[in-house]
């Protein structure tokens, strides 16, 4: 937030000074302009996130300034300010592309809330632009790899229900690709041009998850120094993906149920309801019906979520897909690592087909990435290139026994991959219960969660 650059455009010195002083104290970088000409010149010289524009100025009205600024920087968000508020001028401003419209005299906290919403909107817009650019190669359901009967059934359900607004509940073990299915559902739906907002309910501490989902008002709790909109509001018009919803507390389950029933929620510390139009896709590796019986998951919420269930089969039940997945990952990492590996030997493929894959497709992907790193100069990966556990050798060979390849290697890449492998092993061994995995690795839970997020270990493409 502190890196955001704001332009204040107003011909009144006191308004410019007041807004500039206030916004600088809030951590923004602030520039000012007295008229349209200065505003356009300043926008050509600076990459502003947002502009606050007075509606009435000597050389041009605020609507014209908004248009001129957009012609220089199409991504700048503009908020119109005026002491002559009318319905017609508000409508004109919004039609011209204004993010919001505020009347003078205004409350500075109100201005701050609008700015925070605008910048959060801009940030999410950038994330979704990246996702849309990746859509052709990553998130179409045709590119979920596999031709087994089990995975074809998943394809058929995705194709049938993508354009529906019905709630979907995705079941699957960790590593099977639940988030990829959620992305396929969204990007093949009529909501594809709006946002897909993911929330990992198992990775966010319970005391922060409510604020993450619904937002909070300034002063709602210790540390809430400013108001913030939540993920449901950001997803308005699009889709929210609630991953690992089975880890959510009963208290929060009640509030999720209200959103599903009423299409509205109240931010933490707020008094007014916020209306939203959001499609909900949820996912879990838990048996929620068992959770209902054991009173750890609300029955009414379960039936609201379980409108369209999709079960992703574990890799051990669709082993005929392994050759396709192996070749896909080799091609993917060849491009990423500038390698030219053609494939694996028949002996390697036989070994991979016989392995049980407790970590599912994610484990296979990590293995292929490791093999490409270690064997980048080879054409074919052989059995001796596999880790010890695939060769019936004792696990945990000391690194001092590792043989440095003749062509050398990048030690940072190697160490990162080793750490990734250890994290995945710990997560698989504990059923992706992060607190238990953190204990195995002698890490704080928050440190492990941050490593998983930074290394994108829950957001791989397969």
TrEMBL record:
The keyword Signal does not apply. Its main location: cytoplasm. GO terms for molecular function: ATP binding; sequence-specific DNA binding. SMART domains: AAA (SM00382), REC (SM00448). One of its GO terms (biological process) is phosphorelay signal transduction system. It is found in: Cytoplasm. The modification 4-aspartylphosphate is found at residue 54. Residues 5-119 form the Response regulatory domain. Keywords: Activator, ATP-binding, Cytoplasm, DNA-binding, Nucleotide-binding, Phosphoprotein, Transcription, Transcription regulation. Pfam families: AAA_lid_14, HTH_8, Response_reg, Sigma54_activat. Residues 144-373 form the Sigma-54 factor interaction domain. InterPro entries: AAA+_ATPase, AAA_lid_NorR, CheY-like_superfamily, Homeodomain-like_sf, HTH_Fis, P-loop_NTPase, Sig_transdc_resp-reg_receiver, Sigma_54_int. PROSITE patterns: RESPONSE_REGULATORY, SIGMA54_INTERACT_1, SIGMA54_INTERACT_2, SIGMA54_INTERACT_3, SIGMA54_INTERACT_4. GO terms for cellular component: cytoplasm. PANTHER family: C4-DICARBOXYLATE TRANSPORT TRANSCRIPTIONAL REGULATORY PROTEIN DCTD, TRANSCRIPTIONAL REGULATORY PROTEIN. This is Fis family transcriptional regulator. It comes from Candidatus Schekmanbacteria bacterium GWA2_38_11. The lineage of its organism: Bacteria, Candidatus Schekmaniibacteriota.
């Amino acid at each position: 937030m502190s890196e955001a650059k704001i332009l204040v455009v107003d011909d009144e010195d006191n308004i410019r000074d007041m807004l500039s002083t206030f916004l600088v104290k809030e951590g923004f970088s602030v520039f000012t302009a007295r008229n349209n000409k200065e505003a356009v010149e300043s926008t050509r010289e600076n990459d502003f996130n947002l502009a606050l524009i007075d509606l009435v100025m000597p050389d041009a009205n605020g609507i014209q300034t908004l248009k001129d600024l957009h012609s220089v920087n199409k991504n700048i968000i503009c908020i119109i300010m005026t002491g002559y508020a009318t319905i017609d001028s508000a409508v004109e401003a919004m039609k011209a592309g204004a993010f919001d419209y505020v009347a003078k005299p205004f409350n500075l906290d109100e201005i701050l809330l609008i700015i925070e919403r605008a910048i959060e909107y801009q940030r999410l817009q950038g994330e979704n632009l990246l996702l849309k650019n990746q859509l052709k190669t990553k998130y179409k359901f045709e590119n979920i790899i596999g031709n087994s009967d089990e995975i074809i059934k998943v394809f058929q359900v995705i194709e049938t229900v993508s354009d529906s607004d019905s709630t979907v509940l995705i079941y699957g073990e960790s590593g099977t690709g639940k988030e990829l299915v959620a992305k396929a559902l969204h990007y093949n739906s009529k909501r594809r041009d709006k946002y897909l907002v993911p929330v990992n309910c198992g990775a966010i501490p319970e005391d922060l998850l409510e604020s993450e989902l619904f937002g909070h008002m300034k002063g709602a709790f210790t540390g809430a120094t400013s108001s913030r909109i939540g993920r449901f509001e950001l997803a308005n018009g699009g889709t929210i993906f609630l991953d690992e919803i089975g880890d959510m507390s009963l208290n929060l389950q009640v509030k999720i149920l209200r959103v599903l029933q009423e299409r509205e929620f109240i931010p933490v510390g707020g008094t007014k309801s916020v209306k939203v139009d959001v499609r909900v896709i949820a996912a879990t590796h838990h048996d929620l019906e068992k959770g209902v019986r054991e009173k750890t998951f609300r029955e009414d919420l379960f039936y609201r979520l379980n409108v369209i269930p999709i079960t992703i089969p574990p890799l051990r039940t669709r082993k005929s897909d392994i050759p396709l997945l192996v070749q896909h990952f080799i091609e993917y990492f060849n491009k990423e690592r500038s390698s030219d590996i053609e494939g694996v030997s028949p002996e390697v493929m036989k070994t991979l087909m016989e392995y049980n894959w407790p970590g599912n497709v994610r484990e296979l992907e990590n293995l292929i990435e490791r093999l490409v790193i270690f064997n980048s100069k080879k054409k074919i990966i052989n059995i001796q290139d596999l880790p010890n556990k695939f060769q019936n050798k004792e696990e945990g060979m000391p690194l001092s026994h590792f043989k440095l390849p003749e062509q050398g290697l990048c030690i940072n890449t190697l160490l990162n991959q080793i750490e990734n492998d250890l994290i995945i092993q710990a997560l698989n061994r504990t059923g992706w219960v992060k607190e238990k995995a953190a204990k195995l690795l002698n890490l704080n839970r928050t440190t492990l969660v941050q490593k998983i997020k930074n290394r994108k270990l829950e957001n791989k493409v397969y």
